[in-house]
Specification:
This protein has two domains: about 25-90 and about 95-320, Glycosyltransferase (Alpha/alpha barrel); about 330-425, no CATH class. The protein is mainly alpha-helical. The chain has helices at about 5-15, 30-40, 50-60, 65-85, 100-115, 120-140, 155-165, 175-185, 195-210, 220-235, 250-255, 265-280, 290-300, 360-370, 375-380, 410-415, and strands spanning about 65, 315-320, 335-340, 350-355, 385-390, 395, 425.
Length: about 425
């Protein structure tokens, strides 16, 4: 270790060890450009394009979009309340067109809390009840003996627990217990090919529960699970410094920044990650709005866990539109993708419209939300899934590519509603 070890020792003596994962001294111009890439997306207010993650990312950043932020949150509230609280008797085809998933509902609750509001009132309570029912359904799918799996993913399961936690809404110990058991015993959550994002989101859910003490009987298990998650994320660090890959690094850093378990290993890993991330910013790696919204809080030393007690009075620089709209910020062209699964009865066939360059995860999630697609369609058909019409999607398999980790059918199944970088699949 030599000089690096001496440096870390000195920083520890100055009381900086706990903050070593903070990404500081980033060129403010680069940060501003990231924020500017989100501005065009805030003008897209259709239910299909509203994204609570964009609002959360900006509110936890050092940047603000002025009046656009209030308008965007208002649009989110109208859309989510109307689509999720619509009377169950409306069964026409249009009724399900823009219905958010429970993962999106969880992000919506984070957005409300990012505005220093607690979810409440008759409508708010109904949304909380929906999210709690979702978690109970997922708990039943996992099963009493823990041999099953969530119908969606452990990422969404963790996100749901986190969203309720920041609103001080307690979930039953048995719901938390399923996630704890998965981290403690399920080997597929701990294999290298599983997204670091899932572990990071589970860790942030545990961090919130630990800080809020909403499930005191589970406190010891939560503490141990957090330690285990941190160890696994550190082991997933690449030689370049990323945790998993460049796109999963922001969420990993959100978790590690708030770690109450500083160590030399953690500090060394964070120094490497900071250097790698800064290089990525120089090379304009981050273009996808979801990835940008997860990165901006990190650049402001914030994480989703900070929504336990958000600081809505902190000064933030006002974003101005870029003089020239970057190509990535233009309204994307949409293409039709035909999903066809044979080998089941009845066979599955549905066309979805997605932006060109969408990830496999984007396509499958769109089909799940709007085309009644289910993971069981893939399993029942022994993974025989065909994509065609106008464009074919291919997997980039270069080992230098940040998306190369674990491109296998099991991991793709796990990422149907999880986090798979949009750049991993291209038309």
């Amino acid at each position: 270790m030599g000089h690096l070890g001496a440096l870390l020792f000195l920083l520890g003596g100055l009381g900086a060890l706990a903050n070593i994962c903070e990404i500081t001294e980033v060129d403010s111009t680069l940060v501003e450009r990231l924020g500017q890439r989100l501005l065009p997306w805030m003008d897209r207010l259709s239910p299909e394009q509203l994204n609570p993650s964009i609002y959360v990312g900006l509110r936890l950043s050092s940047l603000q979009a002025g009046a656009k932020e209030a308008h965007y949150l208002h649009s989110l509230k109208l859309s989510y309340q109307q689509s999720l609280l619509r009377p169950a008797s409306n069964k026409d085809d249009n009724d399900s067109e823009a219905k958010p998933s429970m993962g999106q509902l969880a992000l919506y609750l984070l957005a409300v809390r990012a505005n220093c509001e607690f979810i409440g009132g008759r409508k708010g309570d109904r949304l909380v009840s929906q999210l709690k029912r979702f978690l109970e359904d997922e708990k039943r799918a996992i099963g009493h003996n823990h041999q099953g799996h969530p119908r969606t993913s452990y990422y969404q399961y963790s996100l749901g627990i986190l969203a309720l936690c920041v609103h001080q809404k307690r979930v039953h110990d048995s719901v938390v217990g399923k996630l704890l058991y998965a981290v403690e015993h399920k080997p597929h959550l701990l294999q290298d090919h599983v997204s670091v994002d899932t572990m990071a989101m589970a860790g942030m859910a545990f961090s919130c529960l630990e800080l809020s003490n909403l499930n005191p009987k589970q406190r010891n298990r939560i503490n141990l699970a957090l330690k285990r998650v941190q160890e696994k994320i550190l082991k997933a660090q690449t030689p370049e410094g990323y945790f998993g890959n460049v796109y999963s690094t922001p969420l990993a850093l959100q978790l590690l920044m708030g770690s109450l378990r500083p160590s030399v290993e953690l500090d060394t890993a964070c120094l490497k990650a900071k250097a790698a991330l800064q290089a990525s910013l120089q090379h304009k790696t981050f273009q996808n709005p979801l990835m940008i919204s997860q990165l901006l809080p990190v650049l402001n030393q914030k994480s989703y866990v900070d929504l336990i007690s958000p600081d809505c009075q902190a000064p933030r620089a006002l974003l101005e539109p870029a003089l020239e709209t970057p190509p990535q910020a233009k309204v994307p062209k949409f293409i039709d993708v035909l999903l066809k699964v044979s080998g089941i009865s009845p066979s599955y066939r549905h066309s979805v419209s997605v932006p060109a360059g969408s990830s496999l995860e984007d396509i499958l999630k769109n089909a799940q939300e709007h085309g009644r697609f289910r993971v069981t369609h893939l399993v029942s058909a022994q993974h025989r899934l065909a994509f065609r019409r106008m464009r074919l999607f291919s997997i980039k398999r270069s080992w230098s590519d940040p998306c190369d980790e674990g491109v296998t059918w099991p991991s793709l199944l796990q990422s149907v509603v999880g986090q798979w970088p949009s750049s991993c699949f291209s038309p």
